[in-house]
Design brief:
The complex is a heterodimer. Chain A is mostly helical. Chain A has 16 helices and two strands. Chain B is mostly helical. The chains are: A mainly alpha, B mainly alpha. The interface between A and B is large, with 81 and 102 residues.
Amino acid sequence: MLFKKSLEKKEKLKVCKIHGSPFVISIMIVLSIWSLFTLYLIFWGVMTAFKSIDQFMDNPVWIVEYLPWKWEWNNFIYVLQNFYVEVSSVNGTKTVELFELVINSILYSVVPPVIKMFVTTWVAYLIQRYDYKFSRFLEIFILTIMFIPIGGGGSSLLALLRLTGLFDTFWSIYLQNFTFVWMGFLIMIGIFRQLPKDYDDAARIDGASQMRIFTSVMLPFVFPIMLTYIVQGFIGAWNDYMTPLVYLPTHPTVANAIYRMSISNIQGFSRTPMRMMTCAFMVIPMVIVFLTLRNKIMGKMTAGGLKG
Amino acid sequence: MTKKRDIKIEARNRLIFYIVGMTLPLIQFIIFYFVVNFNGFLIAFQKYEIFGDSAGKYIFSGFDNFKEVILDFANTKYLRDSIWRGLLSWVLNQAFFWFSIFLAYYMGKNYRFAKTYLFIMMLPGMVSSLVMMITYKYLVCECVPALWEMLTGNQIPSLLDTGETRITLAVIIFYYCYSIFGSNILLLTSVFSDVSIDVREAAELDGITPFKEFWSIHLPICWPTISVYVIISFNSLLSSGYGLYPFYGEYAPTDTYTLAYYITMRTQTGNLQDYPYLAALSHLMSFITIPIAFIVRHFSKKLENKYN
């Protein structure tokens, strides 16, 4: 008993010693400063979004002095009813309202990650499970080109899309995402390599067709990982303002419209609280997705593959 | 005899399934990778005719675009400086990547508040980098001057409108450093978490310090994964930027330009006749970065072998 207690004491001392090392403490200090700044930034944004113009002018730094604190929900209603963005094209200027912005965002952020992930999984499966020379060649080739930066592609792609009439359509985005050449391909290749071939053989002996083996045997194994990537892709696309700016100039998404708002003056949205509320509007779907799928987003990624 | 025939039929079915399955992804790959990049290569040697018989077509123009790019950079100070500013942002990015490795070690070892820090680090990604940037922009434009006035009684202008490039750059670079702090932290944390517990425990029993443990055990084990990121990062040696576009759109002051910003801005505002110039510029950048990426890859492999 005494021995156990002294062992526990020693263990505690060792933990304190490690936790108290200058190396660990210095990292902790930096992390704390960064975290406090992040929390203040978010806190300031939320507080400002729910302030009236007068309250904001009165105290832009912190919460207003006089209590009770009055949340300015009218800002939210105002954004819902009045947010719009104007886009110019050769056909003139067009006003895009919030409803259309949300639809564009959904079309832009839901479909492409799904397409990309399914194509990637499909090709990775074929390359790993169908042991032809071409599969080996393609795997090595893709690995090689990923390390080589090739310039000029952006300009050429834009020229191609303009000449084919696909520019400024969602089809151009979907076609670009019908690809397997990205980092997720390496991960999927690794996963299919790890899965025992006995599963395919057993299914084949039971008379399953080639397609059935993929859909009923292999897909269920990798589906949780695919879902993780799709969710991450959705978050990335929902927040992406740059790609729609270049490829979809007259179909702005919510992120794109907020970006346009931040660098210009849209009537009724030139004051900071209103701009912050518009930003808050964009964040709401992300908060819901993050809180619902937190473990999927944070827990699945590892370097060599994915935890099942 | 029948068995042999069955095997043949099975092999033929597999091959047909493989060919059919690979066709569409390969067509996409050929068009959006080969054709686009090859066209991107060709377009750099062409110019877009506006007048004359070839109006509306690209015609061969030799090395004119390359000459134009080189002359522009030789004669324009802000373009020359944009290269150095781009390199500065790349160096900062590298420095923060290496710092992320320390942070990931902290998280992977689950030191004090590791989970809380990790959660806070996820927040900017969840809230959206655009929203964080806009919030920061208004914080420095509205909140900081108000805070300064509260503390000192003196009024100062918005930190982005002081008219002094040094202050403007400092404000933007500060945000850049803030935003890349902890980049790749999730992935790196997973790498460090995967280091065998037996190895860690053996080292701890021998009384190893946290820094020594990091340097002698974790880093060598995780080097293959880390090296991939280091090599890939060299691809963006010249195309790195500190995020001017979200702050200013197309109207950033010329003395804050980076090469990445210049290309983005020209692509965004340009049309068919601007693409050859941009393609030539991108090729010149690739011409410099590709050999560097290969040299780094070579040395990284050497280092990996040494660790092994």
